[in-house]
Inverse folding.
């Protein structure tokens, strides 16, 4: 029986060891934002074309924002969608050292 070298390490440590931590964090953040916007659109019964129009942006730009695939979207686009949906964007920097101390 072989013992995995990964036993006892955190998922974050595993991702860092494999050089994909930042990419995975960004994808999770992007998917979270797009999911929240989709849920708000559904709740408010707002179609993509209507949201894009209210945001003053193209449907293609909105599709990039709502896509689950990795795509670069600007804070401006995220903020426009949030404002149209009656929300605000809240971004903060978190000290990585404090995260390392968690069990």
């Amino acid at each position: 029986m072989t013992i995995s070298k990964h036993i006892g390490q955190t998922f974050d440590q595993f991702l860092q060891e494999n050089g994909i931590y930042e990419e995975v964090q960004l994808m999770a953040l992007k998917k979270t934002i797009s999911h929240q916007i989709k849920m708000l659109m559904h709740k408010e019964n707002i179609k993509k074309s209507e949201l894009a129009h209210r945001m003053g942006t193209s449907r293609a730009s909105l599709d990039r924002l709502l896509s689950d695939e990795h795509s670069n979207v600007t804070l401006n686009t995220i903020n426009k969608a949030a404002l149209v949906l009656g929300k605000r964007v809240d971004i903060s920097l978190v000290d990585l050292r404090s995260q390392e101390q968690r069990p």
In short: The chain has one domain: 11-98. The two ends are 28 Å apart (CA to CA).
